[in-house]
Structure formats: C-alpha cells, structure tokens
Amino acid sequence: MISGPALNALRRVVDPEHLLSTPDKLMEYGTDGTKLTFIPDAAIFPASQEQISQILKLACKFGFSVVPRGAGSGMSGGSLPVNGGLVLGLNRLNRILKVDQDNLIAMVEPGVITADLQKTVEKKGLFYPPDPASKDISTIGGNVAECAGGLRAVKYGVTRDYVMGLTVVLPTGEIIKTGVATMKGVAGYDLTRLVTGSEGTLAIITSVTLRLIPKPASTKTMLVLFSDVSSAAKTVSTIINNKIIPSILEFMDRICLECVQEEMEIEILPNAKAMLLIEVDGDPRILEQEAILIKKICQKYDCLSFEVASDNKEAEKLWEVRRKTSPSLYKLRPHKISEDIVIPRSQMPELLSFLSELGNAYNLPIPSFGHAGDGNIHINIMHDNNRSQDVASVKSIIKAIFKKVIEMNGTITGEHGIGITKAPYLDMEFDEAGIKLMKRIKKAFDPHGILNPGKIFI
Q1: CA 39, CA 85: separation in Å to the nearest integer?
Q2: Of 251, 250, 240, nearest to 290 (Cα)?
Q3: Between 20 and 30 A from 304 (CA), which of 11, 46, 274, 328?
Q4: Contact 280, 247 (CB under 8 A)
Q5: pLDDT per residue as tens digits for the range 45-68
Q6: Given the DSSP bridges, would you call strands 213-214 and 126-127 parallel, antiparallel or unpaired?
Q7: Residue range 145-151: average pLDDT?
Q8: What is the tens place of the pLDDT at every residue in 278-308?
Q9: What is the pLDDT of residues 382-434, one digit of tens each?
C-alpha cells in the first residue's frame, strides 16, 4: 500500500493529471495480455528519466513497489502489479531521437511503438527486423525487457541482436549508460545484454540504441500444404540445409487449419494436416532461384499444394491465414493458455505427436502454430475456465509439456518470458545454483526489492 505522504511526494514529481490513484482509473493498468488482473495502488506517467529517478528514490524511501509498463501486451504477466504498488507507465517517453543512416543505428525512447519505428526507418531504406505479432501496439521498451522475437527471427535473430546500448535508471535511482554506439565494444561486463530480457526486474529503460540493416530489395511469399506434420518438418530442415534461410518460416497444424479455413477465401484441402508459410527476401533475381528450389524441396516431400504470391496484394491474402489463426481458435473453447516453447526444429514431429496424445488423454484440444524455422512453437491449450476439471487439466498439461520440452533439450519460453505465469516452472530448466546466482544479481541491482517484485522467481 502506498501511504498518503508517499502519494503527496509523487504528486510533486509529475503534474496531477499524470498520477492516477482512484480505482476506476486504475483498472486498465492492472491487466495485460494474460487477462489476469492485479489492481495497483496508483499509476504514474513520467516524462523524463530524471522524473523516473526521483520516483525510484521515493520508492526506496517509502518502501512501495514500482512496476514498469509499456503497452501491456505481454503474455506472461511481467507488467502486472502482483503486490499492488505503483505502475510506472512509459508511454510518454515515445520519441524516435535519431536515425543515423551513415552508421546504421537508431536511438529511441522506450515508449516508441515497434511498427512506427519500422515504418520510419524503412522510409530511409533501412530495416529493423524484430517482428513480434504485437508490433502494432507493443513498444520498443517492452520488446527489450522481454527480448521479443517474432516471425523473422529464423533469419534475423531477436531483439537482443539489435540492442547496442541502453540508458537505464537503476532501482536505487542512479542513471547509467550501458553498451556502445559502435559495431564493436568489449569494455567491462555486458550490462546491455543482462538488462535485455530481464523483464523489468533490474532497471527501467529510458533510451535504446538499436542496430539497423539495409532494407531487403524484395520479398516472395509462399503457402504450402502437406498431408502430414513429418513431411512439413523435413521440408523445413531441408530448405535450411540447402543454404536457404527464409526470412519467415511459419507452421500451422490441422486443428488450426480447420478453425481458420471457414474465414478465408483460400481453399484448405480436407486432407491437409500441416501448413508452411514461407517468405524469402533479398535480391529479386536470387529470390526467383530460391523459390524454384523451395518448390522442388516441397514436392520432394509430397506437398499437396504450393501457392506463390504474385504481388503484395496476394502476399497479404496468404498472410491473412496466419494472422487469423489465433483468434479463430476460440471456436474450440472459450479460454486459451498459450505457451511459447522452443525445441530443436528436427524434433517437431515428435513434439506434435506428443501433444496430440496429451490432448486426447485430457479431452482438450491443443492446437499449435508458430515459428518452425527456429523451433519456436506456440502451443494453445483450449479450455473452459468455468469447468473445474478443465482448470486442473490445464495445470497438468502445462507441466507435462514443459517436462517433455526439457527432455528434448528445449526451453520453456522463447519469446514471452517467465513473468508470473512460468515462474513455478523455472526450476525445471535451471538448477538450484543457477537460480541462486540470478537472485544475487537481482539483489545487486535492487537491494531494497522495490522493482517489479514477484516476477521470474517464486
């Protein structure tokens, strides 16, 4: 609970309209993409790193917690105020500070919308590849905090591969800079890499220096249907073994296809059990050759159909299949738990067979789609929260999935982070010594335990 004197001190930091403390105005800051709800005691919206520094110093003095928040699109509860306290919204720090075409870097504040940055740099012939599904609403600060991935990760990597430097406010109020604005730099510990992906538990990001690359000249999009998952998985590995790295290589299983097909103009063959959505980018002449080779590989594994978009309009039509997949799954059950595990891509058939058996055992549908190129599969457990049996089954299913994934040398999260939803399972992936080391790092950054408590560790 934030005391009266603490609230009065916060009112001296920002203008009154940027501090909310009445329940009716706090509801939207107590939930996120998980649909879980924890109402904060107050929400504050600073306009500078100096104001953030003052707020954190007050938190240490008065002993209230501070929970940084971007757009609230996270899927693991990282921005939820589980212990009440103060939500610190970063949406007012939303400027693109610089786009340096000569050195291929951008400097931005954390509240910049990911898609807005992409559009801005693409007008200059540059490219910011990280492409999370939430890019039209998610912010760069949130992407850095969660180390967001996205559809293009198979070729271009994830957010951490583009973060060169940060300005952050430590939980004790000090403002520090990490990293560099040059292509090389190895001085000291890599604090930039440590803060990236730390889920708002180590520091509050106030500016980000990002690496850019030249914009690819052209793209080519293909949609391929297969009669079984194994053929689709073998196609993925063979494409990459032939030295073609698609910019996007997406997978959908049969349950997803059944859910989405009635909403689409594209015909989904009744015997199709798997779909690949493939996109390559680069020099147009090379793309033509790659598309021909990809088609031959797909035919080698007896694809049922192979469709190539002739222009951007047709490509957009193919992309609609992927975009409509997630919302279409609610036809199966009213509620959904989405897990974002990663496995070696060659083991995808084994995992999907396991999921089918698991769904049958618990009588719940478990559709899967995601980033086949890097083995990052989004597993959706469809259920009804109003049925106690479903709720109990979901917990058992999640634990069984994570156990299987770890046995396959995978990880329990590739994009969403640990937050609160996966905290109970962290010890399935890390041994006790590793978790203790992480907790010591957290303590070193946040000796008073005020920044985003209750996340990652239980």
Answers
A1: 9
A2: 240
A3: 328
A4: yes
A5: 999 999 999 999 999 999 999 999
A6: antiparallel
A7: 96
A8: 999 999 999 999 999 999 999 999 999 999 9
A9: 999 999 999 999 999 999 999 999 999 999 999 999 999 999 999 999 999 99
With b meaning 16 or more CB within 10 Å and e meaning fewer, what string describes 338-362?
A: bbbbbbebebbbbbbebbbebbeeb
3-state SS class at 385:
coil
pLDDT 10s digits, 313-357:
999 888 888 888 999 999 999 999 999 999 999 999 999 999 999
**pLDDT for residue 82 is more than 70:** yes
Q: How many helices (H) and strands (E) does the chain have?
A: 16, 18
Query: Which residue is associated with the tokens 């859910």?
Result: 259
Q: Angle CA(234)–CA(218)–CA(266) in degrees, nearest 5?
A: 60
End-to-end Cα, the chain, rounded Å:
21
429 closest CA partner among 415, 411, 417: 411
Domains and CATH numbers, the chain: 96-214 (3.30.465.10), 218-321 (3.30.70.3450), 327-415 (3.30.70.2740)
Between β-strands 335-342 and 376-383, what pairing exists: parallel, antiparallel or unpaired? antiparallel
Nearest to 86 by CA among 54, 41, 129: 41
Please state the pTM of the whole predicted model: 0.96
Q: What is the dihedral of CA 130, 352, 418, 248, to 10 degrees?
A: 0
* Alpha helices per DSSP H over 86-139: 114-122
Instruction: Output the six-digit token pair for 268.
Output: 């989904």
DSSP string, 310-358: SSHHHHHHHHHHHHTHHHHGGGT-SEEEEEEEE--GGGHHHHHHHHHHH
Compute the chain's Rg from CA coordinates: 23
Neighbours of 99 (CB within 10 A): 19
Structure tokens at 55: 């707020």
For the chain, the helix, strand and coil percentages under 3-state DSSP, each to the nearest 5? 40, 20, 40
For residue 255, give the nearest of 378, 384, 131, 401 by alpha carbon. 378
Residue pLDDT, tens place only, 221-264: 999 999 999 999 999 999 999 999 999 999 999 999 999 987 77
Separation CA 249–CA 198 (nearest Å): 27
Type of residue at 148: A
Map tokens 């490509």 to a residue.
Answer: 315
